[in-house]
Amino acid sequence: MTAQVITVTSGKGGVGKTTAVANIAVALASTGQKVVCIDGDIGLRNLDVVMGLENRIVYDLVDVVEGRCRTRQAMIRDKRLPELFLIPAAQTRDKSAVSPSDMIRLCTELREEVDWVLIDSPAGIERGFRNAIAPADRVLVVTNPEMSAVRDADRVVGLLEAEEKPAPLLIINRVNMNMIKRGDMLSVEDVYDLLRINILGIVPEDENVIVASNRGAPLTLDGKGKAGLAFQHIARRLNGEQVPFLDLENRGLWDRLRDLTGRK
Amino acid sequence: MSQPNLLQIKGIRDGLLITLGSAPWKDLSAALFAQVESQQAFFNGARVALDVGTLPLHVNDLAALRDALSEKGITLWAVVSESNLTESTAQMLGLATRLAKPKTEPARPAPAAEPPREDTPLWVQKTLRSGVRVEHPGHVVVLGDVNPGAEIVSGGSVVVWGRLRGVVHAGAQGNREAVVCALDLSPTQLRIAEEIAITPKRHGKSTPEVVKIKDGRLQAEPWQAD
Fold first, then answer.
1. Which residues of B are less than 8 Å from A155 in CB distance?
2. Which B residues in the span 71-110 are in contact with A, Cβ-Cβ below 8 Å?
3. By CB count within 10 A, which of A26, A190, A193, B179 is most buried?
């Protein structure tokens, strides 16, 4: 097996990186592919909480890097999906405990064993961000349709270009159709217009996301909810499937999204 | 251990300044690491600025160096260079290129003593994203957008074949003849010499415009063949 290493990043905090990682991972693993998530947010971990695995942590990323355990031992198997694993971040250390080359070494090892490695990057553009993108084959940039998030995403895209990474893909999260219609929110076109990178997915705002992350059960598990569906589509697109989305534009993006969400 | 001619280290206000001598990059970085290796305790946690002289450095060199240093607990925060290539490389990686941050000095004294410099224009064929700063003593031509959060400081004029939404300062050395033009001119802030303007929010379709100093203030007009 040769896994693809995918890093999810954003620059700004709170735009939904962790939610995206958890949901995409679940969607990929539910098709029987072997997926490992790595929480790159050392010191402020929360992917374990969103995935509902916090009480199973024995070893973490820093233990692996510092050689206190084998990689296998730090891989926590998901409660429901046997093909889904999490390598949690250490909570009592900081970003400098891991270096970009540690991440590259770890991912080289994982590549042989799994189909997908998903890395949850911390917010910011410092050490933690560089750790997270160092091993990435592909980078997904998550943003919200608001100016500050888009500005930070733009900065991140610029840094990725400077590092000569392949062109990142964009996930626009928390899109609220009603607000856009009222002209109170940037539209998908506005965001694309500024960032000019290909869009991998558009995720509508959905209360269920908060409910799900509190319950520690990613949305896509039950396969309902608009956001959950959007994340499933993202996972399928990562698998190279052509999920109808590009023809959104021909039919009118919002008509199409309204279909998806059942809103009028 | 390390050859003293290859590098020189001194303490400055913002940490350490390492000045590299003239030698191939490979030798310099080897010497630097030998030094770091031999005095780990001294370097651990240090904030380092690097003066590389005229050495042209590519993204790969500089990114590798930064990562290698950060593994030793050293933060590379600035690269000072006389080479344009190195400077733009450093800017792309988000590193500072000047040691003392120039405070926004209130209108530089500009007794246009020196004639406008006739340097080669800087050609930028990509979109300038947030966080990128382009500085050039001559004219600057951008084929692409200038996004909010990006900055252009030019001694001469600035031409943007795209959307200009960042900050632009033309005629930064006091050249009041400088102009700024763009296909879509909606900068966050626009300066020519010591005049400053903030563009009003525009609605509707934009047309190419040129801004110049007229009657002592900045004025925009349609950009078309005269």
1. 129-131, 149
2. 71, 73, 89, 92-94
3. A26
Residue of A nearest to B63 (CA): A163
CB contacts < 8 A (A, B): 60
Does pTM top 0.90 for this prediction?
A: no
Return the ∠ at Cα B127 (arms to B126 and B130), rounded to 5°.
140
pLDDT tens-digit map of A46-75: 999 999 999 999 999 999 999 999 999 999
Does ipTM top 0.90?
no
Please tell me which residue of chain B has the smallest CA distance to A151: B130
pLDDT tens track, chain B, 226 positions: 445 578 888 888 778 888 888 888 888 888 888 888 888 888 888 888 888 888 888 888 888 888 888 888 888 888 888 888 888 888 777 787 877 644 444 444 444 444 445 568 999 999 999 999 999 999 999 999 999 999 999 999 999 999 999 999 999 999 999 999 999 999 999 999 999 988 777 667 788 999 999 999 999 999 988 7
- CA dihedral for A71, A101, A199, B150, sign (positive or negative): positive
User: pLDDT tens, B131-145?
Assistant: 999 999 999 999 999
Q: Count other Cβ atoms within 10 Å, centred on residue A161.
A: 18
Question: Is the distance from CB of B196 to CB of B170 less than 8 angstroms?
Answer: no
Do A133 and A144 contact (CB within 8 A), yes or no?
no
**Pick from B63, B67, B127: CB nearest A101:** B67
* Residue A77, φ and ψ in degrees, nearest 5: -80, 140
| Contact across the interface for A159 and B60, Cβ inside 8 Å | no
Whether A130 contacts chain B with CB within 8 A = yes
